[in-house]
Write a structure and sequence with these properties.
8 strands, alpha+beta, globular, 268 residues
């Protein structure tokens, strides 16, 4: 995919591949990051990834990287604006914002941000297909080009300890995630990470879709072994493209354009 995009630009310099913007002004970059996070919640709402008080996306602050932005408690994803976001430190102190936050969001996300300096954003929600798939206690199989994004790039946490409330439980999730881009939380749901909010959100949407596809495919056969799987080398080669920075970031851009066109109030 990335090669196809690059090849399409050759011979005509006016066609440029979209790239993440670069900033000289930290304040302008912070505003941009917050707006992308608010947009990610609108994308989750568009997909129906909202379930009561559950679900959270975080992004590391560019100015104070030992803090992160998160959604306010009990505000519907469809209504979240950049100005509603709350900034929290790794000790759980609210350093900026006017709302309380979900304790599980702090317990989970703070430990992942601490364990993975390369990760700037973390997305988690209780979704229909993610919950159903998590009950199977099995990995995503390389049964499609899209599923190859997660080939040897996701983990399974096979222990459910109840509602996450303690940092030790957050450590369990961070340890299970390891250096992967996603983890399936058994009897719980899905969690994805990325170097940007764009990537983490797009990865989550893709993982939920792959869970749906695999559930459908497995329902049509007697066992998962009957599914046609992509071979190891091809799956790895495909993942190198699907999991690249430009593609994972790029997968979010059409979603961003859609929520921006429908209601741009998240920018406020």
């Amino acid at each position: 995919m990335e090669q196809q995009i690059q090849q399409s630009t050759r011979g005509d310099s006016q066609f440029k591949v979209p790239r993440p913007p670069q900033f000289d002004d930290p304040q302008a970059e912070q505003t941009y990051i917050k707006q992308r996070l608010a947009a990610a919640f609108r994308v989750f709402a568009m997909h129906g990834f909202d379930e009561g008080l559950a679900g959270h996306i975080t992004v590391r602050d560019n100015i104070a990287p030992d803090t992160f932005w998160v959604n306010p408690l009990a505000v519907h994803f469809k209504h979240i604006k950049a100005s509603d976001l709350v900034r929290v430190d790794h000790q759980g102190n609210i350093v900026e914002g006017k709302y309380p936050i979900n304790n599980a969001a702090f317990a989970i996300h703070s430990r992942i941000h601490h364990a993975r300096p390369d990760v700037n954003a973390v997305a988690h929600a209780h979704t229909t297909y993610g919950r159903a798939f998590s009950a199977l206690a099995q990995p995503i199989l390389p049964i499609s080009q899209d599923a190859c994004l997660f080939y040897e790039n996701h983990a399974l946490l096979g222990t459910f300890t109840g509602v996450v409330a303690e940092l030790t439980e957050g450590d369990l999730i961070a340890n299970a995630l390891a250096d992967n881009c996603a983890v399936i939380l058994q009897n719980h749901g899905l969690l994805t990470v990325g170097s940007s909010v764009d990537a983490a959100c797009a990865n989550f949407c893709m993982l939920e879709s792959c869970c749906h596809s695999q559930l459908l495919a497995q329902s049509a056969v007697r066992s998962a072994e009957q599914l046609a799987q992509i071979d190891h080398q091809t799956a790895l080669k495909t993942r190198q493209v699907n999991g690249s920075e430009i593609v994972t970031w790029g997968n979010f851009q059409p979603l961003y354009q859609k929520v921006l066109a429908e209601d741009a109030s998240f920018l406020d």
